[in-house]
Task: structure prediction
Amino acid sequence: MVPACFDGCLKRKICLALLCALALAAAGCTGTGPDTATPVPTASADGDPVNSTLAAFASGVQSTLDRLDAGTSAAADALGETGLDGAGAEEVLLNLSRAHLATPDAVTFDPDGRIVAAMPEEYRFAVGANIHGEPNVRAALNGTPGLSPRINLVEGFRGVALAHPVLNATGLAGGVSLVIQPERLLALEALGAMGNATLALWAVQTDGTIILDSDSSLIGRTLADETRHGDASALGEVAREILSTPSGYARYRANETAGVEGSIAWDTVGLHGTEWRLVVNREQ
Result:
């Protein structure tokens, strides 16, 4: 089995109603699978709607990530004045957690990586947990911002976390971390980019972890594990190129008998060295 975007599915689309509920759905799946795929000799991107949709998708996601990064940086500055806990710190964290529908909570942590405060109130159970092992926390305690890959969070779900160091008059006081649910963030931006087009929009980390797909059961699985057709699959080759190349465009034939062709384009967004590949796929 391969991801929904690579499974020979025709006219797959992100469902408007479910996207508004921050979920994805697929519509219509036919074809014989990627092991029947063959390359299409010419790969001109001129006029292909995958490119304009991808441009809008990538621009929207990067702008949102930049806004969340700026907000977390500003929160770190404010926490340098209020301290890491207490009413002032909790107000800063609550405002930060409300930055986006995809940001459920925010925490502060001390130089040992132990959570000092968490907001909103329903996440206060996380206070006292040691998150020193998270890569974003290690980056912040080394004095630089960091965005983690998709990891298990002490809040009880999987997501990514964006951390900034908090400095006070004496030096490094600890840090602040904003939790982000990437599938929610990406689904909202995908909705804005899609318009009325019938396309599949998805995203993957550079380690191959799928973080957005029209088949939500694939989120969290790896592209490498899901691509089991080896070198015989033209789409498998495209999948490997997506992971190794920051941007690109390709055309393919998904069903030789039916003459079904597709095109796919991808680009990269990210923060602080953590990258996501955003992909737009079209079959016709």
